[in-house]
Amino acid sequence: MKDIRYVVFHRQGPNWLPGKTLFDQPGVEEHVAHYRKVLEAGQLALGGPHLDATGGGMMIPAAGVSEEDVRGFAAADPAVVSGVLDYEVRPWLIGMSG
Length: 98
Hints:
Blueprint: E1 4-12, H1 28-40, E2 44-49, E3 57-61, H2 67-75, H3 78-81, E4 85-93
């Protein structure tokens, strides 16, 4: 069976404060708490910010989490709702893993 994950990519939203890092944006603590819920429920494999100037990051769900669940959870992220972050969900086929 193929391992397909619906990965959430975050990027700066329309209410991103220029000149501030991700960690200085309003609502980032709520964003982290939101994703910590799925981590603690065993539904998040990996997540974190990119280390370049884009201010984005990604979340990789655990195997078996549906696209519908990922999209709904990403849309309900407080940082997305406030416009600090924007998101995109893309299907990813895991072709190799250790």
